[in-house]
Specification:
This protein is α+β, with helices and mostly antiparallel strands. It contains six helices and ten strands, in the order H-E-E-H-H-E-E-E-E-H-E-E-H-H-E-E. Helices cover about 35% and strands about 25% of the residues.
Length: about 350
Amino acid sequence: MRANTLIMIVLAGVFGVLAVVLANIWLANQRSAMAEMNGVQRDTVVVAAVPLKFGDTLTADKLREIAWPAGAVPAGAFKTTKDLLTGEGAKQALQTIGANEPVLATKITGPGQRATLSAVLGEGMKAVSIRVNDVLGVAGFVFPGDRVDVLLTRTVHDDGTDKSFVDVLLQSVKVLAIDQVADESKDSPTVAKAVTVEVDTKDAQKLTLAAGAGQLSLALRQAAASQGEATERVTLSDLTGDTPEDVAKRQAELARQKAAEAAAAEDRRRADAKIDGLAHAVERVGSQIDQLSKIKPEPAVAPEPQAQEVVKEEVKFVQPEPPARATIGVFRGVKLETYDVPRQK
């Protein structure tokens, strides 16, 4: 026999003995636990026989009683189905209850009470609806029962510039309903137009005021994260690392560019209006010329000759008077000398 085969046989025997020992220890522990349970006082608790969702009416066929340790009965549990259904009117589920899950008083309505949103509210809490869209509503992935943070985005006018910032208005707010659906078993995302949250009176006032002061949006929290955290205001300078002065200059430059574009657009509009006016004027002149060209001219009539008065002109000869002085020339040798002397009458 080869040495490897002998070693494998020995190891198999060791592991087999070890498995038998561990199985005996486990069985002994189970017997001890059973013995301890037999000594514990037992009680009954009503659980759901089938899965229940928001608004389901509780009936005897949807409930059943199971054994439960007397010292571990949950607060608000019912011992018998008769106790749970006692009272006038039917009872309805206020939230999803799984099969074999204890039915507690906080999860169902009172006798004759309808499964409405008011029945889900906690003591001293109010329901406030927030208008959202497909993006601000976390793309429809917020469901009843989730926890969200409410963010407020505002833009204020300061020193001639617009300054935008975001504040965390409320933290860990419970969502009661999406649009008009308050069923927590709903698991398919839908585009929501309104989200109803559960807040106290002061927070309800904050939400109502913030709805008119800026834009509200939601931030979905982790299911187990119910504690608040330190927050601070986020501005445009936090996005780009610029100082408030840089942001103000950039906004002022954008405002100037916008004004210049508006002025250029107005100039273009006026130029277009003038061109349109000229085009209409040319069109009117052309139409008038066409109308004149269609009119036939009347034949010209020569005017009758009119008698003209003949004026006779009389010509008279007038003898001019001789000049008062005369010029006399005298040659002295070859030189001519002139003298101005009075004329003798």
